[in-house]
Amino acid sequence: MTDQVRTDRRRTHASWRQRFHDPISALIFLLPMLTLFILFRFLPVFGSVGLSFTNYKIGGSWDVIGAENYSRMFSDQVFLDSLWTTLLYAAIYVPMTVIVALATAMLLNSVLWGRAVFRGALFLPYVTSFVLAGLIWRWMYEIDGMINSILGWLGTGPVGFLQETSLVLPSLAVVSSWKGFGYSMLILFAGLKSIPTSYLEAARVDGANAWQRFRMIVLPLLRPVMFFVVVIETIAAFQVFDTIYVMTGGGPTRASYTLVYALYDQGFQFFDFGYAATLGVALFLIILVISLIQRRFLDRESDA
Amino acid sequence: MTATMTTAPESTTAPAGRAKGRRGNGQSWPLTALLAVVSLITVLPFFFMILLALTPSNAVGLPEQFPDSFTLDNITRMFQASGFVRWTTNTVIYSVVSVVIVLLTAAMAGYALSRKRFPGREALLWSFVATLMVPVQAMLIPYFVMISNMGGVDTYWGLIVPTLANAQAVFLMRQFIRDLPDELFDAAKVDGAPEWRVFFQVVLPLTKPILATLGIFVFLWHWNDFLWPLVIAQSDDMRTLTVGLASLRSANVSTPELMASAFISVVPCILVFFVLQRYLVNSITMTGMK
Predict the structure, then answer these.
(1) Which CATH number characterizes residue B129's domain?
(2) Residue B141 lies in a domain
(3) Does residue B245 carry a pLDDT above 60?
(4) Would you call B247 an interface residue with chain A, using a CB distance cutoff of 8 Å?
(5) To which protein family does this belong (chain B) (predicted)?
(6) What is the mean pLDDT of residues B217-243?
(7) Which of A54, A256, A277, B191 is exposed most, by the fewest CB atoms within 10 A?
(8) Which of A97, A129, A186, A248 to mutate to test the interface with B (most CBs of B within 10 A)?
(9) What chain A residue is nearest to B107 in terms of C-alpha separation?
(10) CB-based contacts of B128: which residues, under 8 Å, 6+ apart?
(11) Which residue of A has its CA nearest to B242?
C-alpha cells in the first residue's frame, strides 16, 4: 500500500531523463545477484525436473527415459520406506519441538530476573551446527555414555538409544530439537509479548485459573504464530540429514533412512543422478504442499 | 544453507510489560528456578564437550568420573594436525567470502528493487522470493552436475558460488532500503551524484544495522553448512570443518581429541552469538528469518 503511494508520488516527479536512466542503472545494480539467481536458482529448478526424466549417470552419459524414474519411485520399497520414516520422524520431531519451544517461551515470558541470560542459554544450541550436535549427542547416547551412566546410577539401563529400531527416531528427534527449538522459541516469545496484559488481567478478575487463561486467551491469540512455527518445523523435519549422517548412517537396518538420505545415497553412493533428481522433485513437491497449506491458513487467519 | 518459506506473521511487539500469569508484581521464584534448570540442561551438552576436550587422553574422565586434571594438549594437538588447520582455513574462506559477496550483491539488488523504477520490478522481486520454496536438498543434484561439468569439484569457487543466490538477503535489503526516508536519496539526486557514489556513500552506511544482522546469518549458515560441502569437496584438503568433523568419527581419533575439534569449530559461532546477540534475537522476532 505505502509502496504504491510512494511509487505514484515519484512518478509525477519523474522526468524523461530519469525514466530511461532508472531501468539502466537498475539493471547494472541487479546484474550480479540476477546472474547468480538465473544460474543457481532458476536453472537448477528446471534442471532438476529435466534430469528426473533422464538416466544421467556420473561421467555425463544420458538418455531421455520419460517418466521411468517416477514409476520406479512409486514401486521402490526403499524410497517408500524412507518416506514413511521421514513422516514418522516428523510426527515425533514437530510436536516435541513446538511444545518445548512454547513451554520455554512461556517460562521466559513469566520471568523477569535474568531473562536475557536464560534466553541466551536456551538459544545457544541454535548457532551451532547439526554435525556438532550429532557428535556430542552420539557420545552421550553411547551404551557406556553419559546418559546410560546416569540411568545406571538410577538403577536402570543401559538403553541402546541409537541401536534399537524403535528408539532411534525419537533419539534423533531429541538432538534436532535441542539444536533447533531456540528459533521457534524466540518467534513464540515475540508472539506472547504481543498479547495485551489487560486481557489476562480481566480474565483473572473474572476468576479464570492459569489453565483457563492459557486455553481461552493465550492459545487462540497465539494461533497464527503457532501455525507458522509448526510449518517451519515440519519443513525442517523433512530436510533432516546431517545428524543422521553423523549419528546412525541411516541405521540400524534403515530405521533412520530418511528421504534426503535416500536422495544423497542415490546421487553420491550409486551415482544415479537421474533417479536422485527425481527424489529431489518429490521432496520439493512435499514441501510445496506444506507451504501452500501454510499460506492458506495464514490468509484465512488475516481475513478473519 | 537452510531455505525455508519464511513469512512470519506480523507480531506487533507491545511494550514488554510486566510478567503475566502470576499474582502480584513480584518475581515468581518457582518459575525462575524451573527456567534456570531448563537452561542448565540445555547448555549441559556444551559443558560435557568442553570437559571432555580438556581431559587428558590417558586419564579417566566422563562418564566414569569428573576428571581430576585438565590439559590443553588435545586442542594444541588438533592445531598441529595439518588436516584440521586446513579445514578451518577452508571454512573461514567459505564463510567470509560468502558473507562479503552476499552482502554486497544483495545490497545492490535491494537498492535497485526499492529505489529504481523499471518494468517488471515487483515480478522480479517475487520470483526471487518464490525460490525460497525450493529446498536446497532438491537442488543438490543439478548443482553438482552443473559445477562438476564446469570443473568446480574440489575448488573454492565451486564450493562458494552456488550458495550465494540468497533470496532472504535480497528481500530484507529491499525492505530496509525502501523504508529509508526519501529525502536522503533526493538530496543525492539534486547534487547530481553518480550512482556508485549514492550506493557507497548513502545506501551502504545507512543499511549498517541490517547488514550486520544479515552478515551474522550468512556467516552461521555457511560455517555450519554440511550437505553441499560434503558432496563438492571430495579431497581431504578441500573439506570444511563440519565435513572434516564428520569424517573423524571413523578415523582413529580419541573422544577427547574429537571433542577438542568440535569445541574449536564452535568457538567462532559462540563468539559471534555473544557479541551480536541483540541483532540476532531482534531480527528473528521481527522478520522470522531462518
Answers:
(1) 1.10.3720.10
(2) yes
(3) yes
(4) no
(5) Belongs to the binding-protein-dependent transport system permease family.
(6) 93
(7) B191
(8) A129
(9) A29
(10) A37, A41, B109, B167, B170, B171
(11) A131
Q: Is residue B249 less than 8 Å (CB to CB) from chain A?
A: yes
Average pLDDT value for residue range A136-149 = 90
Q: What is the pLDDT of residue A68?
A: 86
Q: How confident is the model at residue B10 (pLDDT cuts 50, 70, 90)?
A: very low
Q: Average per-residue pLDDT in chain A? A: 87
Kindly indicate the confidence band of residue B165, based on its pLDDT and cuts at 50, 70 and 90: very high
Q: How many interface pairs between A and B have CB atoms less than 8 angstroms apart?
A: 333
Give Cα separations from A48 to B136, B143, B146 (angstroms): 11, 9, 11
Q: What is the value of pTM for the model shown?
A: 0.86
Residue B155: φ, ψ to 5°? -125, 160
Q: Please check whether residue B125 touches A, CB under 8 A.
A: no
| Range(s) of chain A covered by CATH 1.10.3720.10 | 69-303
Residue of A nearest to B289 (CA): A183
Q: Is B282 on the interface with A (CB under 8 A)?
A: no
Please choose, from the candidates A134, A141, A147, A167, the residue with its C-alpha nearest in 3D space to the C-alpha of residue A249.
A134
Q: How far is A266 from chain B (nearest CA, A)?
A: 10
Count of domains in chain B?
1
Q: Which pLDDT value is given to residue B192?
A: 78
Please state whether B155 falls in left (phi above 0), alpha (psi between -120 and 50) or beta.
beta
Chain A residues lying within 8 Å of B40, measured CB to CB: 121
The CATH number of the structural domain formed by A69-303 is 1.10.3720.10
